[in-house]
Design a protein that fits this description.
The chain is mainly alpha-helical and 315 residues long. The protein is 44% helix and 3% strand. The structure holds a DNA duplex (22 and 22 nucleotides).
DNA sequence: TCAGCCGTCACGCTTGAACTCA
DNA sequence: TGAGTTCAAGCGTGACGGCTGA
């Protein structure tokens, strides 16, 4: 169990801007995939890498090239891009937890009522009634097996619940009121504080986000990674500087283990995309903390400086 | 025809809320 | 009431198969 930032410390970037891993250092914290990239099984990629994937895709780099460049499996690249296109978010979903309870006291009481009125009623009939009577919708109707379990375990011993039972806290849409990654909450394309894509149709991203919807983000024609990176280097310099401006406040206000050795306190960046990527790593290293809120904002700023602002805002 | 790309899915894993039990 | 267990989320990887262009 290691935070992303811990393993990320062992992901390095060579002069080609490729992510590589010092095996001897990383072995104890993560695994190395077929491409030589480091990952922690069961844990999401660092936000910095996720941002990089989206950013490279917007630069017109093909997913297969992104995969090789970042040493992330193409399946993962595909998944992240698909999620981004669908939800507008580069952030991983909420890991862990249980499904919202559907057998709320209200539902149990209703099932009990149905059973009392018609002792011979089948579980699937109860399920249909719950739907047709509007007690549940298709998203939170208990399964037949759940209803059977209720009939078996709860009906006989049902106790009266306070009148507020209808406001059970585990009802749908209340189970995940906020994004579980506090660091990212502020940067999510939520509406009303709810995570898009969860518990309902994804909401379109806000204007501050790169829009994934709509026309395919006008992916430019394919170029080689090196070509595009070379062409983008200059723009990237400004972008990274802007990103640093966005994130630098936090970076400078928090205690940096590296003592700011890799980056000047103001987030000054060089035009070297390699170092820019290091900056991503830096962001990620503090991404698990409150500073991560700047990540997506920084990306948005960066895209503006990539000359994609027109595209993204028009999408 | 074939190599490369891409979407999809199974797999093993981590995580955290709900549940169970002493 | 607190600790341990269960369950169902999401994660990235790797493999498979369809599609496409040379």
């Amino acid at each position: 169990m290691f935070p992303d930032s811990l393993c990320q410390q062992y992901a390095q970037v060579n002069q080609l801007g490729e992510v590589f891993v010092n095996d001897s250092q990383c072995q104890q914290y993560g695994e190395v995939n077929q491409l030589g990239g480091v990952f922690v099984n069961g844990r999401p990629l660092p936000n910095a890498v996720r941002m990089r994937i989206v950013e490279l895709a917007q630069l017109g780099i093909r997913p297969c090239d992104i995969s090789r460049q970042l040493r992330v499996s193409h399946g993962c690249v595909s998944k992240i891009l698909a999620r981004y296109h669908e939800t507008g978010s580069i952030l991983p979903g909420a890991i862990g937890g249980s499904k919202p309870r559907v057998t709320t006291p209200k539902v149990v009481a209703y099932i009990k009522d149905l059973k009392q009125k018609d002792p011979g009623i089948f579980a699937w009939e109860i399920r249909d009634r719950l739907l047709s009577d509007g007690v549940c919708d298709k998203f939170n109707v208990p399964s037949v097996s759940s209803i059977s379990r209720i009939l078996r375990n709860k009906i006989g011993s049902l106790v009266h619940h306070p009148s507020g039972a209808a406001h059970h806290p585990h009802l749908y849409n209340s189970i995940y009121p906020t994004y579980p990654y506090p660091s990212a909450a502020g940067s999510m394309p939520h509406q009303n504080g709810k995570l898009t894509g969860m518990g309902g149709p994804p909401s379109p991203p806000g204007p501050h986000m790169m829009s994934p919807r709509g026309p395919p983000p006008c992916w430019p024609s394919s170029h080689s990674v090196t070509d595009i990176l070379a062409n983008a280097a200059a723009a990237h310099h400004h972008a990274a500087a802007a990103a640093a401006a966005a994130a630098g406040l936090r970076a400078t206000s928090t205690t940096c283990p590296s003592g700011g050795q890799h980056h000047s306190p103001g987030g000054q960046m060089t035009g070297d995309p390699t170092q820019n990527y290091n900056y991503y790593m830096y962001l990620q290293s503090y991404g698990s903390g409150p500073g991560a809120v700047h990540n997506t904002a920084a990306l948005a700023v960066m895209n503006g400086h990539h000359g994609l602002a027109g595209q993204t805002t028009a999408l």
